[in-house]
Design a protein that fits this description.
Layout (H helix, E strand, L loop, with lengths): L21 E3 L9 E8 L2 E8 L50 H16 L4 E3 L9 E6 L1 H5 L3 H7 L4 E13 L4 E6 L7 E8 L1 E7 L5 E7 H14 L14 E2 L15 E2 L1
Antiparallel strand pairs: 1-3, 2-3, 4-5, 5-6, 6-9, 7-8, 7-12, 8-11, 9-10
Length: 265
C-alpha cells in the first residue's frame, strides 16, 4: 500500500488493520503473481501466500472517495484476505514464557512495521498470517488531522501512543454504543456500519511480558474491539448492520431507509 496521506470524506469513519501473509492451513501450490512463504509458529508449519497487488492510503481504515483512494478492486500488498482460515478461526494464546522469545518479538516488530507502513491504526497477528493472540494499535495526531473536525468530534477520536497487547481480554465498561462505518484490509475496498461499545477495558501482557490494562472510550475503544474480534476469527462483516455494506466509492451515498443513523445511540 502506498504511504501517501490523503483527506478522508465525512462518511469514511473507519478502522481496521494493515496486514500481510495469507495463511493457508493445507499445502498450497504457488500462485501466479504471488510470493509463497512458509513459517513455523509454536512448532507448527504454516504455508502462506502473499499477494503483490497495490493498494491505497489507509485502505482498510480511512480510505474514501477521490484522491486516489482504494476501490473495491484495490488489494493491499501482503494482506490475508477474507476466506483464509486464519481469519475465521480463534487465534492461540502466547505462553508467558514465550513472550521474550525471538520468534514472538519478531512477530511484534513485523506487525508494527506493517501497520505503520500501511499506514494504519491497528493490526492483529492473524492478519499477517500468524494465529497468535497479539494486537498492536496506534493513532497519531497526523492521521487524525486528515479527518474533518466534525467527524473527529463525532468519533471522540484522540491520539494515543503505540500499544502492544498480548493475550488481550476485552470487557465492556458501559452500555453506551455508537454506529460508524468500518473497513478491513482483509476485505479491501468495502465498508459497512458496525455498532460498537463506546467504553471498554482491555487487559493482557505488554511486549515485555508485564501486565497491562487499557481503559478506552470513543474511537480507541472501537479499534480495540475490532482488533480483538480478529483474534476470535470474527471480521467486521460478521457484525455489520444489514444493507450498509458498500464499496468505498459509495460511502457518501445515503443509508437505506430504515437503517439506524451514524453516531452514538
Amino acid at each position: 500500500m502506498v504511504a501517501l496521506l490523503r483527506p478522508v470524506p465525512a462518511a469514511a469513519l473507519l478502522l481496521a488493520p494493515a496486514a500481510a501473509a495469507a495463511l493457508l492451513l493445507a499445502p498450497a501450490a504457488p500462485l501466479a503473481g504471488s510470493a509463497v512463504a512458509a513459517s513455523a509458529v509454536s512448532g507448527r508449519r504454516w504455508r502462506s501466500v502473499r499477494t503483490n497487488a497495490g493498494g491505497g492510503w489507509l485502505s482498510g481504515l480511512l480510505g474514501g472517495k477521490g484522491g486516489g483512494a482504494p476501490t473495491a478492486m484495490a488489494v493491499t500488498p501482503g494482506t490475508v484476505k477474507a476466506g483464509d482460515p486464519v481469519l475465521h478461526e480463534p487465534a492461540r494464546e502466547v505462553a508467558p514464557g514465550d513472550v521474550a522469545s525471538e520468534k514472538v518479538q519478531g512477530v511484534i516488530d513485523r506487525m508494527i512495521d506493517v501497520m505503520r507502513k500501511a499506514p494504519g491504526v491497528g493490526l492483529a497477528a492473524p492478519q499477517i498470517g500468524v494465529p497468535l493472540r497479539i494486537i498492536v494499535l496506534e493513532d497519531t495526531q497526523e492521521y487524525i488531522s486528515y479527518a474533518p473536525r466534525k467527524d473527529i468530534e463525532a468519533q471522540d477520536r484522540r491520539p494515543f501512543d503505540l500499544l502492544v497487547i498480548i493475550n488481550p481480554k476485552l470487557k465492556n465498561t458501559s452500555k453506551r454504543t455508537a454506529l460508524f462505518f468500518e473497513g478491513c484490509l482483509s476485505v479491501d475496498g468495502y465498508r459497512a456500519v458496525v455498532e460498537r461499545h463506546l467504553d471498554v477495558e482491555v487487559s493482557g501482557l505488554d511486549r515485555n511480558g508485564s501486565p497491562i490494562k487499557v481503559q478506552a472510550s470513543g474511537w480507541q475503544a472501537r479499534i480495540l474491539q475490532h482488533e480483538c474480534d480478529h483474534l476470535e476469527g470474527t471480521l467486521y462483516v460478521d457484525k455489520m448492520v444489514p444493507r450498509t455494506f458498500r464499496i468505498v466509492d459509495n460511502l457518501d451515498l445515503p443509508l437505506p431507509i430504515g437503517c439506524p443513523p451514524l453516531g452514538a445511540r
